[in-house]
Amino acid sequence: MASIPFDRYIRYDELTQICKDLAAEYPNLVMLDSIGKSHEGRDIWILTITDAATGSAATKPAFWCDGNIHASEVSACSATLMVAWKLLTTDTGRELLKSRAFYLVPRLGPDGAEWALEIPPRIIRSSTRQYPFEDEDPYGLERQDLDGDGRILTMRVRDDNGPWKISEAEPRLMQRREPGETGGTYYRQLPEGVFHNFDGATMKSRRLPQGLDMNRNFPHGWRPEAQQYGAGPFPTSEPEIHACVKAVTDRPNICGAVTFHTYSGVNLRPSAKVADDELAAEDIWTYKKLGEKGASMTGYPAISVFHDFKYHPKEHISGTFDDWMYEHRGVYSWTTEIWSPQRQAGITDFKYIDWFREHPFEDDITLLRWSDSALEGKGYHAWQPFTHPQLGEVEIGGWDAQYAFRNPPPPLLEAEIAPLADWVIWQASCSPKLELTDVTVEGGRVRVRVRNSGWLPTNVTKVAEERNMCRGVMATLERTNDATDSPTWLVSGKLSQDGGQLTGWSHTTAGGFGFQSFDESTDSALFEWVVAPGDYTIKVFHDRAGSFTVNTTVA
Prior knowledge:
This protein is 25% helix and 26% strand.
């Protein structure tokens, strides 16, 4: 049986083999393709998962899931593979595949992930392509594993003007120097590494040549480098993002999406650039319902990027995947930030991004205790003396952020990502679903009634309806073995009919108080023709809600 390890992180060659093994073991459920090549020429794999016995993926509503667009966020790949595993090995998953399809891209940025999984890791934001300049910074500190332990930790250097001191409450930890404090022993903290062209005094970071952030390269709201760091020279300039955008637009049956990232332990929803009151109210209501379910299933709060996840209160990000999916594709899309060390340690009253700027020192002590117990001390390392080639005597130690913070530590990975996969699968079950209600033939009159049995409307979002992003339910009529341009057998009715968009029951209010209890049949559509005797084929389809074919005979 194909096996997916959920207790460690995998490199590209193993990921490739896993994808091939799944396709070989489940030939009626899994199809493996490449949506394109990365900057370094690696295939970007996509797993199309559905039950072929009940129709191809293109005939069913579908859900998109991807991960690892950012290089070091390797648990995102594992989470996407967990979705595949649950679809293939659980009763709930196998049953849903009869009526839904999934498009899963485990590692959208394979090049940078390879660097992140090296020992020691090379940490960049996303692509290995050098941007915006091809030359390397001749100055500044380059992160390196100086003591050969396979990790890149922190150096602390004695400095009378340093902003840190050894904590009296917990001497293993460094604590900020208080305003106006003097007379103590103080330190400057730097990443483990060496300086290029060091003048003996100037300590600055070295600009990484790999300056792209591929989650700023999507078309909606894209801004140039001067306005947003790492966005690339133009929208979809990066081969990975171009491949993603094309793959999504080539699959109009996609009704929703989750992109996995790390870390914070939250489910983020659009918009990143505007407030909620500038979005369709109906979409915000539905987003909140989906998010409430996500919070109950995963323990991750659902929050707005614009309102609750800004890096700076006066700035915003744009050109992101989830904004593009909502604004240009008209579907509900989420960014799930996997893993919260704070919540794992029992810290619950914190505000995501703001916590890193300001939090009580007691939180540091709580996290250290958690590392001691839950991580067996592997998250935080005692300070050890080291003779630095440029700085002289320093100490190396502190948090192993790559192990404890950036991704779930491997022993905790499976438990963290399993509920996230469940939420993805549940969201897919909410998609619109076109079904045949009945077919009647009376004399020469043919009547076909269809309905949307899904929770969401066939258009999925209000913004999709307002911007005409998808047409309504279509029905076409053909006479078997008749290819004439002017059919004489059609007495009345149009060969192609548009039944409009069909509601689900996502709009249903909590009332039921008499005046609110009229549930109109807006979830159904009726198509009619009057025809001469013969055999007929009726095709009913909607880009998002699926399709089917009806064969009937008029005597």
